[in-house]
Amino acid sequence: MNCRIGCAACCIAPSISSPIPGMPSGKPAGVRCVQLTVDNCCALFGDAQRPAVCSSLRPSREMCGNSQGEALEQLTFLEQATRPHRP
C-alpha cells in the first residue's frame, strides 16, 4: 500500500516521543506536526533530521483504512490502546 497523498493522519494522531525540528520535546497525540506543509506533506521527507520513527512507518490497510477519516480514527484508537497506563 502507498501513502494517501495529503492524508497526514500519521503526522497528527499519534504521539512521537523523539525530538522533531521545531518540536524538541516530540509531538503529543492529536497535534499536527510542525513539519507538515499546508498541503499535508512532510517538509522533512528524505532529510536526515526526520525522526527514525517517522521514516520507519509504513502504510497498511489496518492503519490507514480507506480514507483520511478512517486513518485518523484507527491511529487515534491505536494511540490510546498503546499508551502507558498511569495509576
From TrEMBL:
Domain of life: Bacteria
Protein name as annotated: Proteinase inhibitor
Organism annotation: Pelobacter propionicus (strain DSM 2379 / NBRC 103807 / OttBd1)
